[in-house]
Amino acid sequence: MNLNRESTFDGSQLAIKVILVEPAGPLNIGSVARLCLNFGVEELRLVSPRCDPNDPEALRMAVRGSTLLKEATRFSCLLDAIADCKRVVATCGRIDHGEIPLQSPEQALPWLLDNQSEDPVALVFGREDRGLTNQELGLAQRVISLQSNPNYPSLNLSHAVAVVLYELRRCQQSSSSSNAQGQEADPASPRQLNDCLSDAQKLLLEVGFLLNHTAEPRMTKMRSLLQRAAVRPEEVAMLRGMVRQLQWAIHSRDS
């Protein structure tokens, strides 16, 4: 069905990876593959899918997007799936998201498009039944929530993808028409930040600042602080260097 005979979509590709975490329904996976083709998304990635992406129902729903579905890359965890991505926006339909700040698509998607480098960026969608965990949401620099009924905020996976990709394409067209120039520097990647925080946690446990039973919530707060600060790669490298030097100094003193 063609509902937009005067579409302004120019056929250009979006250098964006759509990532589905543990999708369970072949109909949903197929529908998402079709949507990626509809909106010019270049790659679909699947994290531990709980159904066969090559299921006949999935391929039937994908229609002309079946090639993209067959070529979808699979990963064992979200961190691996976004390892090469400079900017990551995740989606959240849950109410119990802790202290993670939520943004509207109008706030987060222009930032995703304002990519200063040629590194890929990603949109992450969670499980059909429970979405993304707070730990997974914490890997993204921005988290968006759609303005749905607060009494029943969770959308069908493929419907959520359709809304977000439509908003993303709309933001892209708006940016192109205004000749907007990006000014915000790229933040450290999720992998860089995760590695730095992992080193910091080991050090803080060693010196007694953290305890095993409180380490995870405290480090989650630290991750949130650094995400809000939009720390750059060189800043994370400096922090990680400081942590490693402190570890070396402690071990040298004790030896």
Summarize the structure.
With 255 residues, the chain is α/β, with parallel strands linked by helices. It has helices at 26-38, 56-62, 66-70, 78-81, 105-113, 134-137, 157-178, 190-206, 215-229, 233-254, and strands at residues 14-21, 41-47, 73-75, 87-91, 121-125, 142-144. The chain has 2 domains: 14-178, SPOUT methyltransferase, trefoil knot domain (Alpha/beta knot, 3-Layer(aba) Sandwich), CATH 3.40.1280; 190-254, Helicase, Ruva Protein, domain 3, CATH 1.10.8.
Labels describing this entry:
alpha/beta, 6 strands, Alpha/beta knot, 255 residues, single chain, Helicase, Ruva Protein, domain 3, 10 helices
Q: What is the level 1 CATH name of the largest domain?
A: Alpha Beta
Q: Total helix count?
A: 10
Radius of gyration: 20 Å
Biggest sheet strand line-up: 3-2-1-5-4-6
Separation, N- and C-terminal Cα atoms: 73 Å
Major sheet summary line: 6 strands, parallel
CATH architecture of the largest domain: 3-Layer(aba) Sandwich
Q: Any low-confidence stretches, pLDDT <50, length ≥5?
A: 177-181
Number of domains: 2
The succession of helices and strands, N to C, reads: EHEHHEHEHEHEHHHH
- Give the % helix: 40-55%
Mean pLDDT over the full residue set: 87
Beta-strand residue percentage: 5-15%
Overall geometry: elongated
What's the name of the CATH homologous superfamily of the largest domain?
SPOUT methyltransferase, trefoil knot domain
Structural class by SSE content:
alpha/beta
Number of strands: 6
- CATH topology of the largest domain, by name, is Alpha/beta knot
